[in-house]
Amino acid sequence: MFARILAATAAALALTAGGAFAQRTDITIGMVLEPPNLDPTGGAAAAIDEVVYANVFEGLTRFAPDGSVVPGLARDWDVSEDGTVYTFRLHEGVSFHDGTAMTADDVVFSLDRARGEESTNAQKPLFAGIDRVEAVDDVTVRVTLSAPDGAFPFKMAWGDAVMVAPESAETLATNPVGTGPFRFADWVPGDRVELVRNDGYWGEAPALERATFRFISDPNAAFAAMMAGDVDAFPNYPAPETLAQFEANPQFEVIVGSTEGETVLAMNNGFGPLSDKRVRQAIAHAVDREEIIEGAMFGYGTPIGTHFAPHHPDYVDLTDLSRHDPEQARALLAQAGQEGLTLRLMLPPPSYARRGGEIVAAQLREVGIETEIANLEWAQWLEQVFRGKDFDLTIVSHTEPMDINIYARPDYYFQYDNERLQTLMAELEMTTNKEQRSALLRQAQEIVATDYVNGFLFQLAKTGVARAGIEGLWENAPTQANDLTQVRWAE
């Protein structure tokens, strides 16, 4: 304990001494969840991208802090008049961390691997429209699509679409080898992942020489780690109830923004009672979003009525369709013959899920639905709920950008099967006109909301805490990432 106090004191002195100390080139980032592996092309966990996106791995394009899509490994690209052929021109002199050159052949390998029959890519639909990928020369790639797709550069910005090499693809889970400004150094399971600066990086060198990601799931432990100086920044801080203490302390900065995280009370539409729309609607009316936002998130969060981010220009406010109405919920349950229903509620580790789950259980009890709560670790949630579809209800934030298309996948974990929506989303895929895409997205939101596929709770706020003097952390989260490429300590 004495050593920790000394360390914290030294850190505080360093922050206030100005030019008396050399500028720091290391940082320790706090994360709630530990990634199950470090291969973004073979896992669904957001925690993977939180470590490796833009840091270790790069794609043809990437998301900028404002959510726009900008060039990545591709310096630019052209699109054919019919919208089916994209020609990407790559940066020259790019190498993987193991020293092998990154060429157009690696792009062909990466995209063919992601869309192949044996692919374990969690977002395989991103690549479904690709007909063929060809290397024109070492720095030029031609991607031919089966139909026009104006969103293709957007899809290539996802963490699931990063470029990998055939020499290292099989071991990415434990030894990630990318082209990014940082390379993998060490992973101590249950504790931390360490990255070091890639001195052979093709682009702008980062200011940081070393970055450590520490995994701290307990909100109280996260608060203690920040106060003790064990962690320099917690971009997705799990204890919003303590943010006021940091705001009042000049040694810290509180960073509040928005995320792409639609937080939902997901329902297994393939399970007996929940296959009845009336039961799903009853659950939606039983839920009081404001109570959940206040109780679980201490006021941080924006109510949503469908699976779409409120900050997006095509968002439609449909919250009134599932307004809090316990009397209507009881009536719908009676019509469905499901009075006295008992459902399993599976909760992953994040505090929004655990705290929110207790509140939801109490709200459901008020309308006659009992719940059996099971708190699952992240790996168990992925295996049982996401992959196994062995659940009735769960609470989770879907942090992938613009992911309403998951409702057009009948095999997705909430097992919703609607041919009208599937047809509409297929039409969206082929539509490049901005106004037409906007109209289709609005229709999709209404279908999902009026079918009461899930209970739509709130858009997850990005509540972060950092030590004063750290610059370049993302305020908003257009994708799940702790992008360190522009992070530095102020001089």
Structural class: alpha+beta
CATH architecture annotation name of the largest domain: Roll
Largest sheet: 7 strands, mixed
The value of Rg in angstroms is 23 Å
What's the total number of strands? 19
Kindly, what is the distance between the CA atoms of the first and last residues, rounded to a whole number of angstroms?
Answer: 30 Å
Assign the CATH superfamily of the largest domain: Dipeptide-binding Protein, Domain 3
Q: Provide the CATH topology of the largest domain.
A: Dipeptide-binding Protein, domain 3
Q: What does the average pLDDT come to?
A: 93
Task: Summarize the entry for a quick read.
This protein has 491 residues and is α+β, with helices and mostly antiparallel strands.
Structure description:
- With 491 residues, this protein is α+β, with helices and mostly antiparallel strands.
- The chain has 3 domains: 2-18 and 25-39 and 46-50 and 174-257 and 462-489, Periplasmic binding protein-like II (D-Maltodextrin-Binding Protein, domain 2), CATH 3.40.190.10; 58-171, Dipeptide-binding Protein, domain 1, CATH 3.90.76; 258-461, Dipeptide-binding Protein, Domain 3 (Dipeptide-binding Protein, domain 3).
- The protein contains 13 helices and 19 strands.
- It has helices at residues 2-16, 46-52, 104-115, 152-155, 219-228, 243-247, 277-286, 289-297, 326-335, 351-366, 378-387, 419-429, 434-450, and strands at 26-31, 61-63, 69-71, 74-79, 85-90, 130-137, 140-145, 182-188, 192-197, 210-215, 233-234, 252-267, 302-303, 342-347, 370-375, 393-398, 455-467, 470-471, 488-489.
- The strands form 5 sheets. Strands 11, 12, 13, 14, 15, 16 and 17 form a 7-stranded mixed sheet that branches. The chain has a 4-stranded mixed sheet with strand order 1-10-9-8, with helices on one face. A 4-stranded antiparallel sheet has the order 4-5-7-6, covered by helices on one side.
- A hairpin with a 5-residue loop joins strand 2 and strand 3.
- Helix 7 packs antiparallel against helix 9 and helix 8 runs antiparallel to helix 10 (351-366).
- The radius of gyration is 23 Å and the shape is globular.
- It starts with a helix and ends with a strand.
- The relative contact order is 0.16.
- The model is unreliable at 1-20 (pLDDT under 50).
